[in-house]
Design brief:
Number of strands: 5
Strand order of the largest sheet: 1-2-3
CATH class of the largest domain: Alpha Beta
Number of domains: 2
Radius of gyration: 21 Å
Shape: globular
CATH architecture of the largest domain: 3-Layer(aba) Sandwich
CATH topology of the largest domain: Rossmann fold
């Protein structure tokens, strides 16, 4: 692929926090879709470890999980040569631009962020300034790489709108500086819900480990968790809101097999709930098997992973500091003497 072809491609930016194991929901809702984007776009995939600090972290666990997430990105099929896969904390431009953008973001805008309100209730003992300004750091993440597109779910759409507002405000003051990003909404990938409360999104921060499946769960663990999944007393396999547990299991199955829901419901209509769960567990185990095998291979190759971490941080930094230098010049910060 020529450099000119690369230049013609749009840029996509996305990332995940290393605040817990990547779940099946994260994989089917985001990571699996990312692997389909890497040929069509210039992709920047970040492990957003600075964002994780808004909640108190065990230092050793944070380091371990950050490396684990990076290896899972690669194990799931993201090419570290074709994409930029890196730690947010290894590119200082993220924090530098976030401070500058803080000065162009209004308190009223941040006060309206529903995620801040929700997280403040959940972590009432630690309502820190980072939690409040989290969307500004997210804006810096995106704008540093002049991203055209950002894959977003409903829970992040408000943050993307703020990012767009700040970019437009800055551009209006200083001339064209940032590309104003658009949301990218993948065609496939259902919203995967908790196995224990199918009215809530599957979350790696859920206290009940039976509510989610992680990418590194063993086949026996996956089968056990799906067997325990909440269903209902209707004893009928149908895809409807009145049966959220069954609907969730069907979404998981179809997100993996990429079969139409209607065909699967028709094929499974004569099955009992136990048989449905066994079918779902089977496709989940087979989907995760090659990811797990690749992950454990990568885990043994420390020097290879270390080289990816170093090289990709350097690649990310070259792009990020180019944008940051432009911003610093436009707002009047003194140039560095080289």
């Amino acid at each position: 692929m020529t450099a000119e072809n690369q230049k013609d491609k749009k840029v996509i930016f996305s990332g995940m926090q290393p605040s817990g194991n990547i779940t099946l929901g994260n994989y089917l809702g985001a990571l699996k879709n990312w692997t389909k984007l890497q040929d069509e776009y210039n992709c920047v995939f970040c492990i957003v470890d600075l964002h994780a600090l808004t909640v108190r972290q065990d230092p050793a666990e944070l380091r371990r999980r950050s490396r684990e997430v990076l290896m899972l990105y690669i194990a799931a099929g993201l090419d570290p040569e074709k994409n930029i896969i890196y730690y947010q904390s290894h590119v200082g431009a993220h924090a530098e631009l976030a401070w500058i953008l803080n000065c162009y973001t209004y308190m009223g805008e941040l006060n309206r962020m529903t995620q801040f309100k929700e997280k403040s209730q959940k972590h009432s003992e630690n309502i820190n300034a980072g939690l409040f300004t989290y969307p500004v750091l997210m804006a810096a993440d995106i704008l540093l790489y002049q991203a055209n597109l950002v894959p977003v779910g409903n829970d992040q759409s408000q943050h993307l709108e703020l990012c767009r507002d700040v970019a437009i405000r800055f551009n209006n003051l200083y001339g064209e500086t940032f590309i104003v990003p658009e949301g990218y909404f993948p065609k496939v990938g259902a919203r995967i819900m908790s196995l224990q409360d199918p009215t809530k999104k599957m979350s790696k921060s859920d206290e009940n480990e039976n509510s989610y499946i992680t990418l590194l769960d063993s086949p026996d663990t996956i089968l056990r968790k799906i067997k325990k999944a909440v269903t209902d007393s209707e004893a009928k396999i149908a895809y409807r809101d009145e049966q959220p547990g069954i609907k969730n299991l069907l979404n998981i199955y179809c997100s993996i097999t990429e079969e139409p829901i209607e065909k699967v419901v028709e094929r499974f209509s004569s099955l009992g709930y136990g048989e449905l769960k066994a079918k779902v567990a089977e496709v989940v185990v087979e989907e995760l098997r090659p990811i797990q095998e690749r992950f454990y291979q990568l885990e043994k190759d420390k020097s290879y992973i270390d080289s990816i971490i170093k090289n990709n941080a350097e690649r990310a930094s070259r792009i990020a500091y180019k944008t940051l230098s432009k911003v610093q010049r436009k707002i009047g910060l003194p140039a560095k003497i080289r």
